[in-house]
Amino acid sequence: MRPPYLLLDIDGVLIPFPDADGSTPATHARHDLVPTGWSADNPVTVWLDPAHGPMLMDVIRIGLVTPVWCTSWRQDATTLIGPLLDLPPLPHVDLPHPQITTSHPNGYLWKRDHVDAWLDDAPAVWIDDDFTGLDHTWAAERTARGAATLLIQPDPRTGLQAEHLAEARKWAGRLLTAGTAAHASPNQTEAA
Question: Which portions of the chain are predicted below pLDDT 70?
Answer without folding.
Answer: 180-192
